[in-house]
Protein 1
Amino acid sequence: MRRRIRDGRVPVVADPIEPVSLRAGELLLRPWRPDDAAAVHRICQDPDILRWTTVPSPYPPEAAEAFVVATAEQWASGVTASWAVVDTADAVLASVSLSDLDRGYPELGFWVAPEARGRGVSAAASREACRWAFDRGAPKVLWLADVGNEASWRVARQVGFAYEGRRFAECGHRDGHRTDAWAASLLPGALDGPVVPLPYEPFTPLQDGEVTVRRWRETDAEAYAALQNEPSVARWDAATPELTIEAAAARLRGAHVEDWMLGRVARLAICVDEVVVGDVQVRTPSYPPGTGELGWSLRSTARGRGVATRAVGLVRDWAFGGLGLRRLLAGVDVGNTRSRALAERLGFRHEGVHRSEAPRVDGTVHDGLSFGLLPTDLS
Ligand SMILES: CC(C)(COP(=O)(O)OP(=O)(O)OC[C@H]1O[C@@H](n2cnc3c(N)ncnc32)[C@H](O)[C@@H]1OP(=O)(O)O)[C@@H](O)C(=O)NCCC(=O)NCCS
């Protein structure tokens, strides 16, 4: 949870809320107790909790003691409902809270102990917390997370939250700087609805023994910046400022994840021996349905060995197979003979010329060649 900043707002006096416990299958959501402080202190040493929430960092024992006491006061103030999520042995697995209960709608927050992750604990517990909020008349529940917290977004969508967009400078950080948040809302009718599969999933890395094609990761920032900045790659695009490693990391954890989660572009890294050497994307416009546009680039050090042909071929097969597309498109600058040859090796057929379509880094604009591919072209 990323708390909305309330500076300057007039405080609202709310009715106290009687602390309640809720069941979520085998899990119990119960009010925090003073003797939970040791567990909270241990769990809040986790780097992901320190990175993605506003808990103090470093997190001393006193912070945990203050937290469990404060939660009792928050129930009494009618502003925040805060639960320990425990298993059948009463071991603390997670935290779930609803803040801003005195306002138009509450905001959901959660963390899970590292050893309890991967079992849907926060989704199950959050679902029951949201149900409780709706039973009390909340019209919706808000979820906010730092841009980049994909695990949190995945939990929210499991519960039924629908992505709304980015909120600029929504997240205040410990050092005072602010960053954007992802925002999503849960409406009562979506709570028990089916979870729609993500557009590009299930997805497992594509491999053929020589190359691997996998999702880009934030930790690839250096390789991503090097690829984008390489003159022989950048020359085939409009001039853009050099991509810093910091900006590359922001793109990988932000826009790339949004594009993936929303089914706009599947952006994939080409790896040889676990070293990133290139990029392949499948852009999937909502219209015309069933079509995708492939794009690719490769570091010059990896060229001339068939790496791009193998990698883009794997993505082509995934696009027609797992993704179920019926037509692929590729656009190539008229002067980019290597790229044109790659398209033709993969079976693409030249379909037309788009006049004055392809900008180059030197400011000139050239014709673009369009290539199309249907699964039947390959048989
Ligand atoms: C977010 C958090 C609560 C999720 O824990 P959890 O409920 O056990 O959830 P899971 O570990 O099952 O992960 C949920 C999903 O995220 C995915 N995921 C997990 N870690 C991930 C990561 N580092 N990057 C991308 N996806 C990740 C899982 O594969 C799973 O995907 P799926 O639902 O599509 O199968 C936990 O990671 C956490 O406590 N993080 C730190 C605190 C935090 O970020 N709180 C939310 C603040 S807004």
Note: The first strand starts at residue 22 and ends at 24.
Protein 2
Amino acid sequence: MAISDDVLVIGGGIAGATAALAAAEEGADVRLVTHKQSTLRNASGLIDVLGYTHEGEGPIVDPFDRLEELPESHPYRRVGTEAVREALSFFDEVAGDAYAGDHTDANALVPTHGGTVKPTARYPVSTAAGLASDPRDTLLVGFETLTDFDAPLAASHLEAAGAPFAARGVTLRFPGIVRDDAKLTRYAHLLDREEPVETAAGERSAREALAATVKPHLEGESRVGFPALLGDEFADEVRAELADRLGADVFEVPMGPPSLPGMRLEDLLYEALEDAGVRVVSGVPVVGYETDDDGTIDHVLVDRHGQEIPHEAGQYVLATGGLVGKGVRSERDRAFEPIFDCHVPHADDRYDWFVDDVFGEQPYARFGVVPDRELRPLDADEEPEFSNLRAAGAVLGGYDYAAEKSGAGVSLATGYVAGGRAGAEASR
Ligand SMILES: Cc1cc2nc3c(=O)[nH]c(=O)nc-3n(C[C@H](O)[C@H](O)[C@H](O)COP(=O)(O)OP(=O)(O)OC[C@H]3O[C@@H](n4cnc5c(N)ncnc54)[C@H](O)[C@@H]3O)c2cc1C
């Protein structure tokens, strides 16, 4: 007998998790099936809504002033500005004290590891003391074994970019880390578990040793920025203890992949899914589907160790990611959506998918399924592919998250709308 639920969400990134939570809030029984790790593990953990316009102007001060200027086909225009606001409020409730930024519509400017500032709508509290709008002088601390973050260079970039504060960077040895290839989680676990490490003054806890390494380099700065590795499970505690020992505020600078703030956000969302009673099945792909006589989706097929198991639901949400997550795939001369074969518009000639200018707008970055206002993917004749399928997140086309800085925001807003509508319809 097929497994049966009100709503089945396919994909466990920020779009799928939000869709499942929104559907559960409508009273639906929800199952989420996901295959591999989502983009969250690599993403910064920042929730960008819109940092730059479609034409590349920015950074934008207030994204809500600019959403209606986006093209009609943009996912934000499909769901409407009010839904983007509601989705952010929904996220604020789920994230609780772990995220900041809800006091204003304006973008915050968060320093990143390259010494640039990123316009973003919500940011982890661990980054809050580092905002570029804050005029306090700043010491950035990098580590010899972590070459991704060159603190002196990042500090000079921040100053050159006109940050309203003095920034200095130092590169130090991280107590207890000897290997150049130590994983980021190794740094975090040393601090989380207060592991004992050898120092010139004898054995000390990792937190105490790190503070003692940094303190002599402070020259009156009232805040200190570290790469985002200050603990995992006990990150708040680690930051508070370091701040106490240094006598200065402590913040994290978001890093490239893999990203601890992204992993913390993933943990937070999965805890919320568990609390909401969503059944999560991970490590297995949805590989196909079958329809009823009226053309609606009757069930999908989940590949469990080579066996195709039917999963049935009243409503489905497709949140399988874009070209990165494999929700959209490309072959030599076609781009396609692999589960339902939903229409993915693209030029016939592959040479038109790219432009020569590497910094130019790349058409393939906008590839994805195109939905109606209900977020139902449309076929080539602009009719819904299936009445009971909605799509959310990076599987949608019509936007370039990297150029606009809108990735998590689009996934959140469309996940919220697709899940909410699917949940409401299924529990009717
Ligand atoms: C390096 C990097 C940094 C980024 N930084 C930022 C940032 O600073 N701010 C920001 O706002 N955005 C950022 N983004 C963008 C943002 O992270 C993504 O747009 C967003 O996470 C996409 O979420 P999603 O849920 O739509 O897709 P994904 O996170 O890709 O999730 C899709 C999920 O679906 C699963 N799946 C795929 N196919 C199947 C199948 N057949 N069956 C079952 N499951 C399937 C995948 O395994 C995956 O778990 C960044 C992205 C990257 C890559």
Note: The chain has two domains: 3-99+263-426, 113-253.
Protein 3
Amino acid sequence: MEKEVSKFKSVFERITGKVSPEYITCKACSRRALKDVWERNLSICPTCGKYRPMTAHSRLRAIFDEGTMKEFNQDMITTDKIDFPGYEAKVKQLEKKTGINESAVTAEGRINGIHVVAVVLDTRFFMGSMSSVVGEKVTRAVEFADIHRLPLIIFSASGGARMQEGIYSLMQMAKTSAAVEEFSEHGGLYISYLTHPTTGGVTASFATLGDITLAEPGALIGFAGPRVIEQTIGQKLPKGFQRSEYLLKHGFIDKIVPREQMKQTLYDVLKLHVDSRFTRRMDAI
Ligand SMILES: [Zn+2]
């Protein structure tokens, strides 16, 4: 863990009174650190250890061996299917702000030499919600892994279905689940990696269909949020309900993996399950 936290105000801050765009302030401890320090630290606060959400590309850079990542289907365009007021403008605004054009990023690459397909949901884009394009990208990634007989890793983080796409969003639950089922029938290995927060339609489809389910510490994982459940059943929920640690205790997930151990843990799981003779033949990338 790095400890490069600045205690001094930059010239930018003294003049504008705002935090310099070079810095990110931790929401938990209010200390700030340079953006590239956060990036090298896997978006873990160098002062207090609190996690910030990782962007999809940071996550992929952190797990793939240098120079092996190849993104695919990044040109799929999200359209306003049901004329939802303001949807198109919001998509454009988020594209500009985040530099990505959907919440799902799909790529192939290698983890310590093992060729895999990975999908990451990015919460900066509509809280990682499932649009038609997200469902299609996830499905195509599963099918790509199936055709090339590669292991599949999906990092979920989602507020659920994309309400601005109505029924088209809900249809993605069945589509992605069917693709995962077919992949599974063909003997494919699917590691589902749950990060904060994984909720709604994503939890109710591909996120909970993994052969092995890993989760980040303290992640909220559930279908409806705790407040909605409490209001519905009229009871107080147990402490830590829907957090990774509670779900591990109740057998819903297999292991909680601190972010620093993410790549090594994935490699350990892959080593156990992937036929090394087969991965040696896959030298296409
Ligand atoms: Zn902090």
Note: The longest strand covers residues 190-198.
